[in-house]
User: What shape does this take?
Amino acid sequence: MSRVLWINPIGTSKFDDAVRAELERVKRPDTEVEVRSLQRGPQHLEYHAYEAWVVPDLLTAVIEAEREGFDAAVIGCFYDTGLRAAREVATRIAVAAPCESALHIASTLGDSFSVLVGRRKWVPEMRDNVARYGYRDRLASFKVVDLGVHDFQVDPDLTRKRLVAAAREAVDSDGAEVVVLGCTIEYGFFSDLQAEIGAPVVDATVAPFKYAELLADLAGLGWRPSKVGGYATPPSGELEAFGLARQLATAASKEAATTSFGR
Amino acid sequence: MSRVLWINPIGTSKFDDAVRAELERVKRPDTEVEVRSLQRGPQHLEYHAYEAWVVPDLLTAVIEAEREGFDAAVIGCFYDTGLRAAREVATRIAVAAPCESALHIASTLGDSFSVLVGRRKWVPEMRDNVARYGYRDRLASFKVVDLGVHDFQVDPDLTRKRLVAAAREAVDSDGAEVVVLGCTIEYGFFSDLQAEIGAPVVDATVAPFKYAELLADLAGLGWRPSKVGGYATPPSGELEAFGLARQLATAASKEAATTSFGR
Amino acid sequence: MSRVLWINPIGTSKFDDAVRAELERVKRPDTEVEVRSLQRGPQHLEYHAYEAWVVPDLLTAVIEAEREGFDAAVIGCFYDTGLRAAREVATRIAVAAPCESALHIASTLGDSFSVLVGRRKWVPEMRDNVARYGYRDRLASFKVVDLGVHDFQVDPDLTRKRLVAAAREAVDSDGAEVVVLGCTIEYGFFSDLQAEIGAPVVDATVAPFKYAELLADLAGLGWRPSKVGGYATPPSGELEAFGLARQLATAASKEAATTSFGR
Amino acid sequence: MSRVLWINPIGTSKFDDAVRAELERVKRPDTEVEVRSLQRGPQHLEYHAYEAWVVPDLLTAVIEAEREGFDAAVIGCFYDTGLRAAREVATRIAVAAPCESALHIASTLGDSFSVLVGRRKWVPEMRDNVARYGYRDRLASFKVVDLGVHDFQVDPDLTRKRLVAAAREAVDSDGAEVVVLGCTIEYGFFSDLQAEIGAPVVDATVAPFKYAELLADLAGLGWRPSKVGGYATPPSGELEAFGLARQLATAASKEAATTSFGR
Amino acid sequence: MSRVLWINPIGTSKFDDAVRAELERVKRPDTEVEVRSLQRGPQHLEYHAYEAWVVPDLLTAVIEAEREGFDAAVIGCFYDTGLRAAREVATRIAVAAPCESALHIASTLGDSFSVLVGRRKWVPEMRDNVARYGYRDRLASFKVVDLGVHDFQVDPDLTRKRLVAAAREAVDSDGAEVVVLGCTIEYGFFSDLQAEIGAPVVDATVAPFKYAELLADLAGLGWRPSKVGGYATPPSGELEAFGLARQLATAASKEAATTSFGR
Amino acid sequence: MSRVLWINPIGTSKFDDAVRAELERVKRPDTEVEVRSLQRGPQHLEYHAYEAWVVPDLLTAVIEAEREGFDAAVIGCFYDTGLRAAREVATRIAVAAPCESALHIASTLGDSFSVLVGRRKWVPEMRDNVARYGYRDRLASFKVVDLGVHDFQVDPDLTRKRLVAAAREAVDSDGAEVVVLGCTIEYGFFSDLQAEIGAPVVDATVAPFKYAELLADLAGLGWRPSKVGGYATPPSGELEAFGLARQLATAASKEAATTSFGR
Assistant: This one.
């Protein structure tokens, strides 16, 4: 049995119910799912400054989740915002993120993949992540569908049409064998898409969630982020001294205690 | 519920029981484990010619497993012998392999890793695989412990001693944050090892098995090897025409039918 | 004439005077230097969570500096913390950072370089940056001198001794032709060091400052971060709507108005 | 004087005469050419499972050739099927393969090259080989002409037309300076092709054959595959014990003795 | 105050005045600019043999400049012709070159860049340089405008039109965020160009000149090419013994003395 | 029958006889060997400025050789000095060079190699070449034996001792499976060396010579450097106009006519 927390690292609970519904559909029978978003902050993370503004609260949410006994947390943004720091502050809880998980999975399904993103703006940071994760040579292309995060679910038919067109081009012209959806809010389309194009389409919501279930299992074997180097956790005394523990308390966990995180 | 078949791709059932015991210990409650080895062939795969000689029977075993309704098969050799061809011939069953799985997992646990292998002989092919999987820049080192496949379980104290020494050097001198055991027959040591060195030690038997459980789940979502390119499956008529179907029948599956595969 | 702001992105002004003194020594005659630190936050950024916690205030400081008419800002941490987001929110001001600047310079001085860091902990993020900047093949080694950020200036003789020893090893054993100091608080040592080892030693404080002077000049030619892609600036209306403008006001700039930023 | 054996690693002698004719045309005066195919197995190797099925017999053929006093053997498939294992089992005979040889040669003729293949299916394994051989950055493109192995020689005019069109596009649009034919059965076209497009076209049959002549010479200088690591040869006793020597005898060499290998 | 020498490494002073005018416009107030060309040699360097023929005289010019007290020299060809050797023979003077400088600058302005060159011929050597400098993964494309070095300034409207078209395609279709002009004789266009396409356009004349100003400053801090390895300077006795010092005298500097270098 | 010219690109014929003797020993029966050096210039090419100074005369020698009907020329320096320009000016003659040839050969003999060089000074340019040729990931190490070009043949016992020690370390500690001698003047040692260390040792004189024989054969098939891009040959009219043809005549070929080139 695993308890997995999905964190939408944005200041709106707008997508929480839909994401939870998706995850309930694909979870193992004995996994318990919870979805939370932040108490404040931007409504999407298309800009890197927005990412920056949510990371402190995101880290608080991860620490909080660890204290509450969750086995894994998922960072719900395809930029994998704050993943390094989250694995640093976590001492027991597993942390998964969409890009890393989706690429690991995609790499077992085909030689090369394309990522379908909303805006050209997103490409540079994502391409850096693709490279950092080791998949630069497997990247067939980024395809931009010209939709913002908040557009994907507004007119599903339009979104589907654009995703299908982009996926087809990826497979037919760019040599992709696998398609990866490059935003967690592109949820709900992958099944139709892969039926239509005849190639696997890895979903940015399902992939990290299933990976989180795996990582939670593995944490039980002692396979948790190594603390000998980059993921070494800050000394707790220092957190106090720097007022960060208090900030955490104020900014996120205490609020969470009174208002209940997310929904 | 998933049924996972572990294949020791060697002509001896010597390690089957021990591997099964390891897997039983780490499987999900609702996973069913079976372990098989081949009816013929070399007793280990340290040489690439030996790998070559077992792949036809290994592929037969994978096809057989698919027909028997297994959800996933694991290729039990850290060379990931025959992985590409296995994903090609499989149409429904998921296929996992040690090196790929272990590196995916290790990459979520730390910045860089060392692989503990038995012989220098093994390094070139494994290093090529590390590079193909995208992890060349994460590879801290290969450490050779000078033990053959059949030596690892003969004197567990000696093996443990050598593995600890090599792992220590990897972490202290080579900058590894994670240690990967580079042979499936190095089973049974990872828990002690990671306790002793204070860094995660990814086991070559447990890692692909847990990954196989994941891939089996994902196959249910339609995330199976893409058939638009490199993993396209041979046309069945051609298999007949070339006599490969019959060869399969003779060489492996029919034998398997009479003598029972594996144990 | 250029006005350059050095930002120590930590919640202490402890190093401000010394850094200013260093910069005054190396600035062009017509450059105006100012050094600021943050009103709150951790005293150093060795942990990635600390980095995360300071970035919002750091971005506020950059925006603030742009409004105040500075031509360039330097992010005073060798992790190049928040560089991508800073170039995103900046529309006119140039932003430089230590690792990027130091490596650009080092690459003109020799074939390969070593980076002298305080802790092993720092290596993974820095190595990722080295790779992102394109210098992975030029990296001879990271050398760890086992000193924390706050240790470097406590006992200068000890620090010098350790830096000399590490630099020597880098040049003599690791093949480095150039040495890079991997922390801005390693200031004050490079001249002695390079005299002693007979190879250039690039300082993490001087390098980005001189680079900032260059980038300020170039901005005058219209060579500012491209807004067609990854560095596109958030729409100001959205900043308002998301309460980030206000958060900025509260967290940083307004405070800064009353208490004076930095010193 | 060198004796070179070309092995068509497929269960048909259909192409043997034509290949021999090609090689006779380009061989050094004092080279002796022989062409053989296998006694059984698939008629082409477009599928990786087919590759797998032929490798044991291919290795047998190489060992056999070494015993018969050949100086070099060529593996007649652009996947370079079994090359690593062939160099492992060989102790005296040199082994060449089309992709490796063609890329070495192409790299001396121009900055970048395109490979003309029959099917998209072939690309992933070949691209992995291109990368392993070090030429990923020199690869301009793979061009797919939509012809199977057995189609190339059926309607030479159609084949020529498609190859010319693909080669033109490679040179004019993809930036290729050199064209490489990515299948040994694309023999007979390179001269016309290079005359027509005005750039060198490296043939997959001629290239490895000429390279084999070179490697045979070099073997005479002691430049044979290094036995200190990955190419270490299996101990002969072990081959006996594992029944592989006998399998060899049955599967290939004895048959070869009675029926004469190849034609 | 810095004295910077721009060297047009060709046997014509045709472009000297125009280049000087460009540099005067962008130099720091206290920089002194001089422009020289060679006494003999080809009129452009599109061919690598031409590059080869000018390097001895170019090196002589650099040594000469060092003796005359210049602080920096710029090699005025986007191939960065002779850069390695120039840094080798220089002991005090800083040496900058267009491609290296432009890419360093471009990399601070955006994720990826395209280089606008005159001829396809130029691409291979330039791409090798891009790779050597570490920017292969940042290279969006080379765009060929089909103009020779001597064509760029003949019909500025035609040149502008072609550069705009190529730059637009680079930004709109190839994903470039920054455009780099790949020939020093493409001077005079970058301001218009960047206004028109809305993305920074790095000029091959301005970039290395501004970089030279920086490098001159840095040389004052002791940051000169490292002499412990690849940039070690030939022993002066040897230069005499080999007659190179005399050749220098004859071929270039003495001539320069009588006829005055450059203009 | 092939006529191959070995060019020692230095201003001394000191090594010509010994090199010719080596080549005579390894040539094909029907190959004709000639060895030449330059009429002027430095006695070795350890410095890049020396390389620069000889390239014009080297190119003249290549053009001359083409006119005289040689089938191939070898550039006798492991820096592969002037190789790009030589292939540019050549229209019929094949050009080989030591580093490129030796690495192509070494890559067929083992997974990784070490290069034994005289001075640390040589490493950066050679490492850049190794990377350009695609072998960076196959490079185990450079080993410096602290001997200059002119030292290698002075005390053969000392040289042999140092080379053996370095080769041993390469194989035993650095993981090299193959050793490459990184200077043409390290001739005469490879046979003893490989006997002693038990791994192939690729000689920098023999390797490019044998490769030249191959390339000469291939040129006969039309496989000559592609003239569609980087190797396009300068128009002959332009050579006249720029006075380079005359320079050639003066500097090298005419002199050669009267004094006989080389010996």
